[in-house]
Design a protein that fits this description.
The protein is of the alpha+beta class and 398 residues long. It has ten helices and 16 strands. The chain folds into two domains: 141 residues, Sandwich (Peptidoglycan synthesis regulatory factor (PBP3), Domain 2), CATH 2.60.410; 236 residues, DD-peptidase/beta-lactamase superfamily (Beta-lactamase, 3-Layer(aba) Sandwich). Helices cover 32% and strands 26% of the residues. α1 crosses α10 and α4 crosses α5. The longest helix is centred in the N-terminal third of the chain and has 26 residues.
Length: 398
Amino acid sequence: MIRPFLRRLKTAARSACAAATITVLALGMASGLPVAQAQPLFDSAAPNILVIDHNTGQILLERNADVPLPPASMSKLMTLLMLFEAVEDGRVTMETTWTVSERARAMGGSRMFLETRHRPTTEDLIRGIAVLSGNDASVVVAEGLAGSEEAFARIATARARQLGMTNTNLTNASGWPDADHQMSLRDLAILATHLIEEHPRFYSYLAEPSFTWNNISQDNRVPHLGTALGLDGLKTGFTQATGRALVGSARQGDRRVVFVFSGMPSDQARADEAERIINWAFRQFAQRDVAREGQVLAEAEVWMGAERRVPLVAPRDLPVLVPALGDGAIAARVEYDGPVPAPIVAGQELARLVIAMPDDQTVSFPLVAGADVAQGGFMPRMRSAVGVLGGHLGLEGP
């Protein structure tokens, strides 16, 4: 007689477990964390702007960040990414030589000054795009990788989609004005972040101060390179529709910020705004750890385990960015689907620490099991079942 009862008990327990998941997610678990009251105000002169703290992913400022806009030469970062990936995949090497077509040679605007007789190497082309913003070099790469610039644009757009760049549509490799050639500031920030994190081998090319090709020396257009501001890449852009624009990144100490803005009226205005953004982002915010690696922040109920609960710990130091002069506290909660079924392995991701910032942002971090929990024997499993079902069936745990 007991086996049919146990089968009914297990069926009912699964239903109760699902209900408990909704309850846990809805209620969460409060934790008082020292964090700032409000975001310091910054009156940017740029009509379109996005500033992100790289370490925490927190958005410090945004305006028109998801509007598809003409990216001008900033879209050459996508051309560079496609070339970097070709090198890392082994399809080309840094010493591979490339053919310069008449179409590439005839490109106007910013140029590397390639001639059809030239056979630039991959490294030459990287410098020609990263430092000189060469439209001609961009076309050479597109034709060399995909056969034509049109085919390259389709492939590059598809790759952008894979990276989560949902407001990107590319029609060429250089950013040459085209009504259908568009990227949002957020997409450019995603791309910049990807280059920084996934392609450090190549990132330094974006900070080279100058490059000489065909006996012509040209300077990098990115402002403030090599200064105390810490700006170490990425790319400027300009068309009449875009205005002066910049996707940049700066590092000071252990912190890095990524920012994108467009619509500035002059090169000087662009340089001034970049300096203002960097100074504001680093001087008005401070990074604080809300939890240290291994710190227990909560416990999760365990289903059918040798233990009733498992500690939820921080897998690493968990930082948030707070206004440097702020005071006060905000709420944090732990969310998990529970009870968590045994067996559980230490280090297994089980939950999220969700911090609600004063500016209505939320910052989320993973939490992991702080210990192994084996699957329980008969009595622990019965205890789990009765504990979960108690409220539903009027039972009390042993």
